[in-house]
Amino acid sequence: MKTDIKSIESTIKSRKWYTETAPAVLQYCLGFVNGYVNLYKWFGIKGHTVEILHIIDKLGFESSIHDEREEVFEHLRKKGLHYLKKKYALWKKEVAKLINLQKKAFNLGNKSNEQLWEFYKKVLGLDIKQWSFSILSESADNFSNYELLPYLKEELAKKGINPSTKELSEAILSLCSEPGLSFVQKERLGFLAICRKLVSSRGKITDDIKKACKEHSERYYWITNNYQRAEVIPAWKFLSLAQKHIKDFNEEKINQEYTSLKETVGDIRKNKREYQKKYAFSKNISELLDLLALIGRINDERKEINLRTIDIYYRILKEIERRKAVNIDDLLYYLPKEIEALLFDNKKAEKEEIVHRQKNLMLIAQKEGYVLFSDENAKKLINAFESQETKIDNLRGFVACNGGLDVFRGKVSVVKDPKKETSRPGNILVTTMTRPDFIPLMRKASAVITDEGEISCHAAIVSREMNLPCIVGVKAGTKILKNNDMIEMNLRHGLVRII
Hints:
The model has no long low-confidence stretch (mean pLDDT 92). The chain has helices at 5-14, 30-36, 40-43, 66-79, 81-104, 113-134, 141-157, 165-175, 183-200, 207-220, 235-248, 251-262, 264-279, 283-324, 328-331, 336-345, 351-359, 375-388, 439-444, 458-466, 477-480, and strands at 17-23, 50-56, 59-65, 360-366, 369-374, 395-396, 398-401, 407-414, 428-431, 447-450, 470-472, 486-490, 495-498. A hairpin with a 2-residue loop joins strand 2 and strand 3. It is built from 21 helices and 13 strands. It is globular, with a radius of gyration of 23 Å. With 499 residues, it is of the alpha+beta class. Helix content is 56%, strand content 14%. 40% of the residues are buried. It folds into 3 domains: 5-137 and 296-388, no CATH class; 160-279, no CATH class; 395-498, 3-Layer(bba) Sandwich (Glucose Oxidase, domain 1). The strands form 2 sheets. Strands 6-13-12-8-9-10-11-7 form an 8-stranded mixed sheet.
């Protein structure tokens, strides 16, 4: 395993990297960083040889080797749908174990330090195991966003069928979707049901409404978690949000959104049947589209279990904070071996080192293990990454929703962390990727552009619900575009330009 600065710098500079960005702290990222380099255990291929995470003031940059991502998807494409379905069924069993541990995380106070450590180890082990399978969904991004459309156009042209780019893009959205609501849509449906009850009671808080809020909180209290923070949303908070929602939106709009969500599953099935009949794709292409749909489902389920797992880590660290009088803001930057030393030997990590990590760290995972750098050493490695960045002059992605338009123009609001930044109502929201905590901003936005994502990502799903113009996977929108830039979104071809 390479652990010296010069060898790692050489590796960084010699490869092409795919980087994704999100608010982050160390503890909540250990699962996916180690999951990348353990993918080979599920699929018996080389997989990812190295995964790099650097965090600067709670903003994380996750980097994997571009060619290795492509190789993972090509393996899945070669093996086919039946192969992935079998692996998926095994993965679901591991996910069930994590969900069971989430229930047990409510009662950590009666565990000894040794038992708490074993519980933490078990959670981390299962987290890494589930990520080492579900990280496969990242491998399809490039194909879904940039290669699928021209590939289908070429195949259809052989049969004398020449749909427009806009028409075929809309078909892809249906053909690469599995019937069923995402976890975000399920939560939204439950929330709207509470809003409808409030409207019916003319704002009176009945026992039925209290019960509905309590049950909703029990199901979705973790919904706004992310790689940087965990939050428990109580029943009263959901009630307060519902009260605000019925003030901001009239009964007709609430009922329209509720009905639309209820009908989503039937609409997907109907649209898929119609497009399959219209284009009569070959068996191989139909299976490829179904494979992408299953990958989309795995991506959504992975996001849900990740938010749930972050809740478990949060509860463990809060319990350690209570016992050992170490602030959770520091514990979030401890390594597992330091958690162990704290629990067994009451040995705290050096405060100066934790402060360095909070400002600047780089974690490098390989199959043999991982190594962490902070302060000046981390800066050297980050500079190596920055020297590898290629200049991107144009922005192109996949049109997740055209909003019924061919072209949309507006001013930009760039937001990387919705807790720290905001966007002006009516502006085009530009971000790295969206999560449930972005939904309030998306509702104020006139359109959405993301650096990352594909057909079934969160931004794509939510924008289609809202009929909001959306282009995902443009790679460098947050780097090229600035606040108040006037831009044009070409919703036929997925192009973005400053005007």
